[in-house]
Amino acid sequence: MSISPQLLVSENSLSKSSKSSKYANMFNKVPQITLVFWLIKMMSTTVGETAADFMIFNFKLGLPVTSLIMTVLFSIVLVIQLKAKDYIPWKYWLTVVFVSILGTLITDNMTDNLGIPLSYSTIGFSIILAVVFAIWYAREKTLSIHHIDTFARELFYWTAILATFALGTAAGDWFAEGLSIGYQNSTLIFAIGIALITGGFYVLKLNAVLCFWLAYILTRPLGAALGDWLSQPIKNGGLDLGVTSISVVFLLMIVGLVGYETYKKSGRISRN
């Protein structure tokens, strides 16, 4: 799947504040929306799916212990991210990776330990996400990620992100397993969904903020379905590449792209 490097970049023009663009760029806590952003985001979602399975089964920690460990680690990483004064690539993307793993574990606990059907989880997290967006907009009058420049907005942002990851995990598993669509077909369906949103943005001129969040939500089930398709045994509809291999390869790719983002950011700072 290919996503245009310019996807949703024009969102920068929305919800302008009285601050100058230089001031906004200094303090906004979220990266620019480019092809690299979408690549890291999608791979982070896949790592969230495979890394959770790796810890549960390869380390034999079990779901409850793994969930507890990841909750503690996510809390530590989130504090590090919240204390940053502006966008620091490694801090931001490390938080995304951990929130991806935690979102996966939340849904897995609801399914495996509480017996909640994936369809109910999908509907429930959709409602939770809608409520978060409603409260966020009522308070801040914008959902644009180009204005994550206050502590309150960042808390809303990460709450919404966690909800999207839990929702995406539930939706991805529901499509692939609950509806028996399969991992490969589910991957294709979610990829087509993102392509349609991209077309709606460019052709129909749909709202940029709406398109961004819809695409962001769909990248989670896309990454979950892709991760399962690559890692699950052939008898289960996967390619049997293993959770270890997929986790390591995607993590290395994420590290490389985050390094590139860091290099670009340092170059911009030195020129200023």
From TrEMBL:
Domain of life: Bacteria
Record carries keyword Transcription regulation: no
Keyword tags: Membrane, Transmembrane, Transmembrane helix
Leader peptide range in chain numbering: none
TM segment ranges: 61-82, 88-106, 118-136, 156-176, 188-218, 238-260
InterPro entries: DUF347
The protein, known as: Membrane protein
Organism, scientific name: Psychrobacter glaciei
